[in-house]
Specification:
Helices cover 17% and strands 33% of the residues. The chain is built from five helices and 16 strands. The chain binds zinc ion (ZN).
Amino acid sequence: MSATPAAGLHHVTAIAGNPLRNLNFYTRTLGLRLVKKTVNFDDPGTYHFYFGDEAGQPGSILTFFPWEHAAPGRGGLGQTQQTTFRVPARAIGYWTHRFIANGVAYEALEKRFGETVLSFTDPDGMSLALVGVPGAETEAGWSNGDVPAEHAIRGFHGVTLLIDDASRTGAILTDVLGFAEAGREGSIIRYRAPGAGFGRIVDIYEAKGFLPGRMGRGSVHHIAFRAADDKAQAEMAHKLVQDHGMHPTEQKDRNYFRSIYFREPGGVLFEIATDIPGFAVDEPLAALGEALKLPAFLEPHRKDIEGVLPALDEKVA
Ligand code: ZN
């Protein structure tokens, strides 16, 4: 695990359509590791995929609920507008060619806060970007053979939230979640978590008067922030209640982390997830993502669950 402070993004969870198409795009086209193949604990007839770096470190984890029949989402207020990944600055050319070769829809390069941004969309229309970060080449990159390690994604850069009024959301980011305001550019206010490395940026795009978004396929479902452990999480929950009038849920055991949830004032569902115990709790690091893993309370129903989950073989592609 990294020695940087336990602050910043823990994971981002989004809604996809066809599970095999989702799996192929993130593991093959983007070269992320499938670090956990499990089910939605609240809807165990559907998958929950976790993609990330080699060890599935907090700040590298993008997860999906693949709901084959989900209607397409619509961007707007109260939604995550874009989810961004870090790559070495000199890898942007490689990725542009890779997107052309793989038929990935992408946009012209732009600059944000001095960094080069390559925006693109996944097969479900989810808005993503690669951000070329000078110095990221010194961070470890994981390769599954499809994307060379030198060009590989180094975790999240961050997320951009589309919000009507940044002030109350910004106050929670700075007062509770450990971020500090780090700059402004146009309508975007940048917040940064302390320390170096991935998963430390939240940009608020303040867009008064936009239409509200609608959750669906291609939408981010929620953003999870890091807490080192249960004690740190309880302190954050206390602050949310006492100082911000929020009503976080009771703690839920997600097997790989423990979580509380609340809807922040701008409308985005936030989660606070513990760094512990992590993804190696039920299978060895070398075998992450290979077997279908179920929490203890669902293990007695494994046969039924395996019977209803869509097959992940090539013919569905
Ligand atoms: Zn989550």
